[in-house]
From TrEMBL:
Belongs to the MYG1 family. It comes from the Eukaryota. InterPro entries: MYG1_exonuclease. This is MYG1 protein-like protein. One of its GO terms (cellular component) is cytoplasm. PANTHER family: METAL DEPENDENT HYDROLASE - RELATED, MYG1 EXONUCLEASE.
Length: 386
């Protein structure tokens, strides 16, 4: 059994993504008006409040994260801007102009608000506030991780890779400042405004209504708006759940496996440019961290250029060779596989490369394959020196 498999077995109590289907449904007070009394009696959790009207990704996520906790699993939700109604709520997010964790008030719109997640610079939204105060409890409840280093690492990782973008989006912060792009004379190659989770949540604001708005009472309009918010919150909550469980099930246990492979990389290439993994796993983040943290011996390359891993656990599995991307650069690699190999397959690839067993090299040069480990390693070494 490989190192990663052993670690995964130890974490077998961590739920799969299917577990999200068992998370309790979302309730709003307007929707409850149509429920029977027996169902109403079950909603005995603390009342959650957020604002009515146009909704955004941050409060949709904040509400869904709260509902992953046993305390709020059966909580009803009221969407209103009425201070009197909000004052009856146990927990209020994204409305009320008040941030007071002791009173469970998590708004960020007040002028004096400037709270950030530890070690970050982005001002928090309601999503970041809820995550900062409840995130570790949520992670422990969903994954079963005990308090300790792994929990702390995962808590930070989920904020960095998932939550912070919600905070930035709601506070009008761009990943890259437009003025910096303009100064560098850079323009987008395509439009991606509709590609984010925030844009998907926004679409729920305009979802088709069952009855024309002008034919509805105010109560019906509010109920329909609440129903759209419920769908949006369920959607974004599932994305959070999938992110969390994937990081817990695969990313976190891969740390030790990647570390072992990194420490033994000189066995495969004297200059340390090739990393060999026992199986496919999330390796990039861990590799970047190891390169920054580890001393580099004399004569060893400062960076790994290619990563090898088997396609499956079968003894005769084919092997993949993956070019390492430049950190935080998307599709740009430290060193592409050689141009003459790009887009070439099978026997033709073997002839062009001079290495038997060639399977393919992607036309973009970021990944390729060989029938055997020895063949993939030979391809990696040849590519390093090409």
């Amino acid at each position: 059994m490989s190192v990663l498999r052993q670690l995964l077995v130890r974490r077998s109590n961590i739920p799969s993504a299917r577990t999200f289907a068992r998370v309790p449904r979302f309730y709003t007070l307007s929707a409850m008006a149509t429920e029977n009394p027996a169902k109403k009696m079950k909603l005995d959790g603390p009342l959650i409040g957020t604002h009515s009207g146009h909704f955004h990704a941050d409060e949709a996520l904040a509400v869904s994260m709260l509902r992953l906790l046993p305390t709020y699993a059966e909580s009803p939700l009221v969407r209103t801007r009425d201070p009197a109604l909000l004052s009856t709520c146990h927990t209020v997010v994204d409305v009320g102009a008040e941030y007071d964790a002791a009173r469970h008030r998590y708004d960020h719109h007040q002028r004096e608000f400037g709270t950030v997640f530890p070690g970050h610079n982005t001002k928090l939204s309601s999503a970041g506030l809820v995550y900062m105060h409840f995130g570790k409890d949520i992670i422990q409840h969903v994954t079963g991780l005990p308090a300790g280093q792994d929990l702390d690492i995962l808590f930070e990782k989920i904020y960095t890779d998932f939550i912070e973008a919600f905070d930035a989006n709601d506070n009008g912060v761009n990943a890259l400042a437009p003025k910096d792009l303009e100064a560098a004379n850079l323009t987008k190659k395509f439009e991606d405004r509709g590609f984010s989770i925030a844009s998907v949540v926004n679409r729920y604001n305009y979802a088709p209504q069952g009855t024309p708005k002008e034919e509805q009472t105010k109560e019906q309009q509010q109920a329909e708006e609440d129903a759209r918010f419920t769908k949006a919150s369920q959607f974004v909550g599932e994305q959070f759940f999938l992110e969390l469980t994937d990081r817990a099930n695969a990313w976190l246990p891969a740390r030790n496996a990647v570390k072992q492979a990194y420490e033994s990389r000189l066995q495969h290439d004297p200059k340390g440019r090739v990393l060999v993994l026992p199986e496919g796993m999330p390796w990039a983040d861990h590799l970047y961290s190891l390169e920054k943290e580890s001393p580099i011996p004399d004569g060893v390359a400062p960076q790994v250029l290619y990563v090898l891993f088997p396609e499956s656990s079968e003894p005769d599995s084919k092997w993949r060779i993956r070019a390492v991307s430049k950190e935080n650069s998307g599709f740009e690699n430290r060193k592409d596989l050689p141009d003459p190999w790009k887009g070439v397959r099978d026997e033709e690839l073997s002839n062009v490369s001079g290495i038997p067993g060639g399977v393919f090299v992607h036309a973009a040069g970021f990944i390729g394959g060989n029938q055997t480990f020895d063949g993939a390693l030979a391809m990696a070494k040849a590519a390093c020196d090409f």
